[in-house]
What we know:
The protein is mainly alpha-helical. The protein has 10 helices and no strands.
Amino acid sequence: MSTGTGKQQRRGDTRERIQNVALELFAEQGYEKTSLREIAERLEVTKAALYYHFKTKEDILTSLFEDLTGPIDELILWGKEQPRTLETKQELLRRYSDILTAAAPLFRFMQENQGTVRDLKSGEEFRGRMLALYDILKDPDAPMTAQVRCFSALFTMHAGLFALKDAEGDPEEKRKAILEVAVDLVAQAHKDA
């Protein structure tokens, strides 16, 4: 392995560590009450070292959203290329469930800090992605009840992740139950259309 590759790997690891610690602190204290100094202290690095990667808290949050949106953008592209079948919609939900699971701490942050997220450009872009997923799930001329079911399927996936985080039970079992309810909603919407 070349030295350049090793430095890039360490830099990537540091960036990820900063993101993880910042997200932990945002969850513990709230976004507004967390300072860059506190993030640096938790990481046991200087503020200058932190500035090398991120200049502001918003930069950290934006980077988290960017990491999340890549897989969502790929899913949207995939979904738009598929036939509008029930199987496609169910697979879209399964894949989205995997994305949510991988980014669970960020989604919890988004739920608990909706005001902050709403004010960020990344939050607005995220809403656009959710509408794109919704458009793939619903049929173009679907009746209102079918549209509500498709929207509710996405809401169920987001809210379930947040609402059940402290509930008793195996996390994988909870994830599967949430997905099953979302898939059922889309199946019913497909019948209504």
